[in-house]
Amino acid sequence: MLDCYAKAIAGLGTEWIGYLSTTGVYGDRAGGWVDEASDLRPAGERGRRRVAAERGWLDLWEQSGRPAHLFRLAGIYGPGRGPFEQVRAGTAKQVIKPGQVFSRIHVHDIVQVLEASMARPNPGAIYNVCDDDPAPPQDVIAEASRLLGLAPPPEIPFETAALSPMARSFYEESKRVSNRRIKEELGVRLRYPSYREGLAALARS
Questions:
Q1: How far apart are CA 112 and CA 110, in angstroms?
Q2: Fold classified for 2-204
Q3: Which of 5, 67, 82, 192 would staple 197 via disulfide (CB 3.0–4.6 Å)?
Q4: CA distances from 147 to 76, 83, 90, 99 (A)
């Protein structure tokens, strides 16, 4: 988009611009922690494109003064975007890859972070948007099954799991993402600090 519209955006009198990126820009950390100061090590083409897009928005801010902010989103879930449908249909999988952890964020908390940034603009700022509890993916499936009163699906080793290329690519990266900056700088108090609260709310809706 910036390739086509950077000049037009630079000419706008906007007070706030937000670019929604991904924690995939950090690449694989073998389960280790990253924060906004960590170096970027994207593993795949999607991650490399996001790094380039981030750089474009920061260049726009530096060159034109347009108030760009970057938000690196973890795995998104929420209404209509969660594990319940798969668990009910019997298509959910508990894929086991030892040491694998993902960070997540409920869509309502994404909105909360963006609103907090709009209220406290800080052009050039970068924020990780994730909850407090990086967790193995099979734990989320097990919790969704428990909330539905169903037996969890059998565990399947990652090496033999039938996964789409997209799904398999997510397992190539394991990391824990710090969200301290959204709390300290933006004053955000997460509505769903872990997948447990988030799934419980979805189960009630």
A1: 5
A2: Rossmann fold (3.40.50)
A3: 192
A4: 20, 11, 15, 25
- Regarding pTM above 0.90, the answer is yes
Question: How do strand 17-22 and strand 68-73 relate by DSSP bridges?
Answer: parallel
What backbone phi and psi angles, to 5 degrees, belong to 204? -85, -20
Residues 195/142, Cβ–Cβ less than 8 Å: no
70-95 pLDDT, tens digit each:
999 999 999 988 899 899 999 999 99
Instruction: Output the 3-class SS for 51-107.
Output: HHHHHHHHHHHHHHCCCEEEEEECEEEECCECCHHHHHHCCCCEEECCCCCECEEEH
Residue 3 clears pLDDT 80, i.e. is over it: no
Q: Across-strand partners of 34?
A: 177
Residue written as token pair 């909360």: 112
Going 171 to 109 to 129 to 46, the CA torsion angle's sign is positive
CB neighbours of residue 124 within 10 Å? 12
At how many degrees (to 10) do helices 195-204 and 137-148 cross? 30
> Average pLDDT over the chain, rounded to whole?
94
Supply angle C-alpha 24, 25, 31, rounded to 5: 60
Cβ distance 109 to 201 under 8 Å? no
Residue of 29, 158, 44 lying closest to 103 (CA atoms): 29
